[in-house]
Structure prediction request, 272 residues.
Amino acid sequence: MLKSMYSGVSGMRGFQTKLDVIGNNIANVNTVGFKGSRVMFKDIMSQTTKGVTAPTDAPSGGVNAQQIGLGVSVGSIDTMHLAGSPMTTNNPTDLRINGDGFFLVRLSDAQTVPYLTRAGDFHVDAARNLVTSDGLFVLDNGGANITLEDDVVSFTIGQDGFINQTMADGTVQAGAQLGIGKVVNPSGLEKIGGNLYRMTANANPDGVLDPVTANSAEDGTGAIIAGQLEMSNVDLTNEFTEMIVSQRGFQANSRIITTSDEILQEVVNLKR
Prediction:
């Protein structure tokens, strides 16, 4: 069989994967805190039909190797952790990190390593816990659940993450401070759905995650902006351009298969 046919098949598979990623990016163009992905290709190992000949003292010039590529494969699917556009909501529990870092949330107290998220659309439940839309607890810089006092009538959240609570008697008290997760390699985080990421051994050394404070030059974390949300970082112009490229690449590889099939048909017809 012709090698070009299998190369065309590998190309179609690669561009199909790229179209799948593009489709997911476009579907999440309005998802709060979503980070788009991209597909990077790499060539498959080549078949060497003639080796290299080095120059000699005769003198004789060197001869390059002759190699035939065997197609393409997906090299990586990278999550692009670029900042998304801010959207002003004026809701005091809507938070945005203006810089590096992730909010820390967990499903229950039994969970030792919290999840990370950039989606700051939080709420206060009936027990005065600060939670996500799915009911996960938002953690402070000590790794504990954030709970408001019983006699709080209003509160504000500063850029350093401190919750300033106005009590029933009119006094203002400093409450908990939101915890921030700092990750060495954000692309190493694992997406688990629901705008959440799971810590891995390639995101932080040994997969360790210790809460730090927001707006800290020492920790390298961004400030917390209340009343705003970070929207998706997906650029529709770029996505549709890449979609056109992927579609044409898929068509070109399918034409390789068609042409290879026609050549094989000519070989079969030689006996006639």
The longest strand covers residues 72-79. The two ends are 20 Å apart (CA to CA). The chain has two domains: 3-47+67-81+234-271, 86-230. The helical segments are 3-27, 236-268.
